[in-house]
Amino acid sequence: MPLPLTALWRLVRANAVTAVSLAAAAFSFLLADRPGDWWRAIDLRTLNLLFCLMFVVAGLRECNLFRVLAQRLLARCVRFRSLAHTLVQLTFWVSAVATNDVALIALVPFAVYALDRLGLRRRLPGLIALQTVAANLGSMATPIGNPQNLFLYTAHLIPSADFFAATLPVAFAGALLLFCLTHALRDEPIDFRFEHRRTLTHLPQAWLCGALFALCLLAVFRLFPQTWLFAAVAAAALCLCRTALRQVDFALLLTFVGFFVFSGNLGQVESVHALLTRLLEEHTQATAAVASQILSNVPAAVLLSPFTDDWRGLLWGADIGAFGTPIASLASLISLGLYLREPDARPWRYLLLFTLLNLAFLLPLSALTLLLG
After folding, report:
1. If we measure between CA atoms, which residue out of 297, 235, 220 comes closest to residue 53?
2. Which of 38, 153, 206, 330 could form an S-S bond across to 143 if both were Cys, CB 3.0 to 4.6 Å?
3. How many whole angstroms from its chain centre is CA 289?
């Protein structure tokens, strides 16, 4: 295979979900009755907010914010159970305010480092599986916790009070169960010290990104114009924080564009439109949850959204649908990839623990939404 084709294949493998979304978008032009209207399906508001949030969080991560926070909390731990509680709860809360992907990318390596220093690497699969569940739980609590929440909150113009009334009971019921399972871990004393004390760096950038994050929150809750937010973030990216700009996940933005176009063109096919509309009228949450197991919850939410006004069922289905196969959530794939990089990784042990743990959340949280609905 020639070198350019080899490089292209590596790029596709590294961004498989993006490649699938763009291929699906291209194929959908063969089905659409009016392919010239494809651009109408692209939700620029969601893309703008997602870009701004990813940039700001990348800038804060560059300043060591999450590492400093983790180090200061972990320094107080003298027993394994308290270490596990700290890592799991920190993952939950960081996910709520900085997305589940960022929480896992920042904190799973901390778990690896801590257990490696303590000689407890055998306990790594269980701890990373708990962190993954914590990330998916925390992210469902807020509109900015994960991409599908941000998309649904923006596309369906969900009132903030209604959104939190739907998500907070489920997220905190899951958090209670998560606390109990973490507390059930076998405890033992530990003696944990850091070789190097982390400190905040690039303080002007940290303050700037903190201010931009506040503007992002105001824009998400429709209290600040999105065009002004984009202008402020673009100015910061071009003039002050160019390295943070390179850390933005542009592949995720392309994934959204691909599935926006795919769902828009698919909606023009009468038979498909009728089928999805009927399924979502009768079983919105179940359809979204099953689709999440196959497509992952972000593409599932984007694909199904145009065919229903039941945002609550779609939101619950996509968020709770994250608890299933590793494919069900992009965040789960991130933590799996981080674990598999370890030289002594035991994939089947991790997948067994991950599956059992996810079933322990999928079933009761689904039952809870039936009561809330």
Report:
1. 220
2. 153
3. 16
- Pick the closest to residue 160 from 177, 180, 141, 178 (CA basis): 141
The separation between CA 164 and the C-alpha centre of its own chain, rounded to angstroms, equals 18
E strands in the chain:
none
pTM, two decimals, is 0.85
Q: Count other C-beta atoms under 10 Å from residue 165's C-beta.
A: 12
Neighbouring-strand partners of residue 299 = none
Q: Enter the tokens of residue 344.
A: 């002594």
The pair of three-digit structure tokens given for residue 116, joined into one six-digit string:
């490696």
Is the Cβ–Cβ distance between 184 and 335 less than 8 Å?
Answer: no
Task: Specify the 3-state DSSP secondary structure of 79.
Answer: strand
Q: At what angle do helices 270-295 and 347-372 cross, to 10 degrees?
A: 130
Show the tokens assigned to 310: 């039941």
64: left (phi over 0), alpha (psi -120 to 50) or beta: left
- Stretch 272-295: mean pLDDT: 89
What letter does residue 186 receive in the DSSP assignment? Answer: P
Q: Angle 222-104-75 (CA atoms, 0-180°, nearest 5)?
A: 110
pLDDT tens-digit map of 65-123: 888 888 888 888 889 999 999 999 999 999 999 889 889 988 998 899 889 888 899 99
Residue at 80: amino acid letter: F
Pairs from 11-17 (Cβ < 8 Å, separation ≥ 24) = 15/251, 17/255, 17/296, 17/299, 17/330
CA–CA gap between residue 145 and residue 102 (Å, rounded): 10
Q: Say how far apart CA 19 and CA 75 lie, in whole Å.
A: 42
- State the DSSP string of 122-184: GGHHHHHHHHHHHHHHHHTTSTTSSHHHHHHHHHTT--HHHHHHHHHHHHHHHHHHHHHHHHT
Distance CA 145, CA 187 (A): 31
Rounded to a whole number, what is the distance in angstroms from the first to the last CA of the chain?
54
